[in-house]
Amino acid sequence: MSAVVVVGAGIMGASVAYHVARQGIPVTLLDQGPSPATGVTGASFAWIGGCGGDWPGGAQDLRGSVLADYRRLETELPHVAVRWTGSLTWTNAQTKQNSRLGPGRFRVGGSDIATLEPNLRCPPEQAIHTPSDGGIDPTAMTNALVDAARAHGATVIHNSVVTSLKMAGERVEGVLSSTGFHAAATVVLAAGTGIPKLCEPLPVSLPVAASPACRARLTAPPGLVKTIVAGPDFEVREVRDGDLLLTFPHVEDQSATSLEQAAQAALRRLQTHFRGSDSCRLLGYRTGRRPMPAHGPIIGYATQDRSLYIAVTHSAVTLAPTAGRLIADELVTGQPAPELRRCRPHRVAS
Q1: Do 154 and 188 fall within a single domain?
Q2: How far apart are CA 146 and CA 152, in angstroms?
Q3: Residue 216 belongs to a domain with what CATH number?
Q4: How far apart are alpha carbons 52 and 314 in whole angstroms?
C-alpha cells in the first residue's frame, strides 16, 4: 500500500507527487492517459504571473509565492527553464488611465511598446507591461515533475482509468481503476473536472465548472514575438525559439475539421498583427476542459479521517508548484498550511 495515491498526472497531480516523493513518502501517481499532461494541462497557454490576472478566494494567499516557487523548480529539475519574457496586454478596461495596476505592472505606450514588440504592425496607444511574467512548456514541465517524482521513488502508472473510490464505511481506502485496486492511507484527487464525479459517494459539494481551452502550436521565425502578448482577440507567446503558442476561441463543433479551421483562422489573425509572420505554419492544436472552481482553489481534506484530499484550481499551471509544496507539507507533517486556510473544501462549498 502506498501512503499516498495521487489521481491525475496533469501539472497539479505531477507537482503533488513530486513534492511528496522528495520527502521520502511512498506515492503512486495514476493517470488515464498514455503519458503525462494529455488532458487540459497539454492544452494550456501556460502563462505564469504573480501580479496581474484574477486571483479569487484563497488564490490571493498563494500568489506571493508563485514566482519564487517556479524559480525554485528551475534549480531542482534538470532541463527545465521558464521563459521570463514579461507580458504586454491591452484591453479597453486594462488601459484606462484611472484603472489601478498594482505593484509590478506598468502602463506603457508609443516607443516603449515598439521596443518590447518591434514586429507589431499596429501597436495600441497604451498597454500594460508586467516584466515579471513568464511562460513554460506545460507538457515538458509536467514530464519533468513526473520524472523527478519517479527518481525519488514514486510509482507512476499510465493508462489507468480511476472509476471510483474504494470506501469502507466513511473511510476512503484507495481507488478502483482499470489497473486494479490501489490502496492508500490518503488519496489525493488532482483530476480536474473529473473530481466531482469521483466524490459523488461523499457528502461534499464541489462547485467546479468546466471552461474550454484551445491553443495552437506554430512554427515561426525565432524572436518574432518577444513577450507574452495578449490583445482583445488573441494571445501569443514564444514557448521556445521558433515555436509559438497561440490561443483560439472555442468552437461548438469539436470535429477535427472545425478545430483546424478555427486554428487556421487564429493563425491568420496573428499574421495581420505581426510583420514577418507570413512564414508561420500550423503544427498542431489541442483542446481541453479547464476546471473553474467558482470561489477560488479547492485544496484540502474532504473527509474527517484525512483519507481523501482534494486539489483543484485555476490556473493549475500558475499555482501547481506552490500548491504541490504546501500539499506535500500537510500530508507529511499533518500540520495545516496557513496559506491554504481559505481554500478548504468545506469553506469553498459554503
Answers
A1: yes
A2: 10
A3: 3.30.9.10
A4: 14
